[in-house]
Structures are given as structure tokens and as C-alpha cells.
Amino acid sequence: MRVATGMVSGLRAGPELAEQAVRNALDEAGLKRADQAILLLSRDFSRHPQTAILAAARAAGTTQISGCTASGLLTERGWQMDQPAAAALVFTHDAAATHSSGAPLLCFSGHNNLPFDWQGGPERFGLLDTDAATWAHGRLAENACSDIRIPGINTRMARSSGLRNLGPAQTVNHCQGYDLCRIGGQRAIDNLLRCLPAALREYPPLHLIAGLRRPDAPGIAILSANTDGSLTLSAALNTDDSLSWAIRQPLSAEQEMRQALAALAPCEKPDFALMFSCIGRGPVFYGDEDRDWLAFREQFPDIPLLGAYGCGQIAPAGGRNCLFQNSVITLLAESAHVQSLP
To answer: DSSP letters of 285-320?
Structure first.
């Protein structure tokens, strides 16, 4: 299997962008046609993506086109968030890779939350972007959920939550639904302020702070601080639960991303990679540059990469599939059937 990517942007969201992205990827791979392709389109295509999907299918010579619209796109050559754009990864299958039961399950969703039937079952990796259009096998998914398998590859995952722990886990003493009232023997707001650095206590950046049930669990956002000292969270807790506070900061997030990628680097060099990031984590978070993308390029130069920015990232954790926010899910793929370009 040979693999390569292409990305094209323009002033209007027309099918020619999708067609050219696929053709560029085919040229890079030295292919006339592909057996399968992942096509990602900017949100500018959300209302009428089918013409772009058909154009990509004609250019690739296959109906096996899957993907979604997203808030931003990226490949190993760069990222695009400001203009209509299309990005594609194309590949051919080796004859020995026809069976896909053990292949990773890639998922795309336009829902607000992780679909219930995706939470269990096989491990899933992918992207959720609210109100996104999704497609598989060249057809739009009516329920805005699609998934595919890429046969003949093995994968390894690197996940960066971007959260720096502010202290040890503490016991929840009292809560009412989504309102955390007391934790660690204190009012919730007092406990949080005690854990924060002194410089942040006067005006705590609640939008950057999350609660963690476990180190590998998705962060629980703080929705509001209330006059009675309670905190309204994005998930309900129970009395006697354990919870720790964590904060998102660019330097610590970049360091965590580099460590996550470096932990996989001693293994076999990947043949290609998929990266699903948060719209609030990339250039918006780092100040007009995506340091997570830079970390990948430094750790794995010349590796084909396709990815997108969305509202949530899908990955397994704690024995189930979870929806993360403000995270980066990087899926490294290698196989005896994949031949990378020199």
C-alpha cells in the first residue's frame, strides 16, 4: 500500500478543491487511482458537500471515500482554518489486506455528544464537530455519524489532554446534580482558589480549568461559579467521588504533546498518521501557530499526515470510548503492507 496526502484551499467552497486535493495526493504517491481515501472538508462545505465528495471519488477512481467537514484542516505541509479547503489521504491496499476486522475504527460525527452506541464496543478514534456533515463509502450519512476501517494496518495512539494537574485528587463532600458544592472539606470555589497559583486567584480563568475523575479521563469543564460558593460543572458527580483540578496552559500542553509523541518514537517508524485536534487547542490556543503540529513534524519528519480541528476528539480510555475536548489524538499507522515514499 502506498499513501500520500494533499491539501488545497481557495476563495470558494467548490468541488474543484476536493478534486485537486485528491489529484495532488495521487501525484505525490505516484498513483493513477486509489483503493480508498479519507476526504476532509472545511465547514464551508457543510450545506452541500455531496458534489465535492463525488468530485473526489472521480479523481480517486473509487467510491471508498470517507470523512467529514471540520473547523480546520491539516496535513504534514501545514494547516488551514481561514479559507475554504479540502484535504485528502489516498492509499492502495495490498491483496493480503482485504480483511479488516482487526483494523482501527475511524469515526466522524456531527452530533453535540458522543453517540451512545459508540461508547462501548470496539475501540474508536476520530473527530466530532457540531453540525458537521459526515460520509462513508462516498455517501452522506443521514444521521451525521460515519465510521470506516482501514484494512492491513496496525496503529498506536498518542493523546495529549493539554491539562496540567494542580494538586492531588480530593473527595467530593456534597453535590447537587451538576453543582459541586463542597470538596476537600471546603466550598468548591474556595477549594479551587486554594489550588490555583496566586496570580490567578483574583480572576480565575474558569474556561481553562477542568476537573478530572482520573488522569486518563476527559476533563469536566466548569460552566459557572455561583454566589453560594458552588461550581456548576459539565458533568454530574456523586458524593465520595474523587476529583482533581487541572488547568490548560500553552507551555505545559506543548510539553505533554512532545512527551506523548516521544514515547512512541522508539518503536517502528510510522508510515502515515492521523491527527484530530481541538479548534480551541491549535493556532487559537498557541497564538497563530500550532505547536502540536510542529511537535509532530519535528518528531516524525516526512511522514504523511492528515487531520482536522473540531469540537471533540474520540478515543478509548478506561475500557470505553470517550469524547475529549481541548485534546490532540494522534494515530500512528504502520504495516508490512504499507510502503512509504522515500
So the answer is: HHTSS-HHHHHHHHHSTT--EEEEEESEEEEEETTE
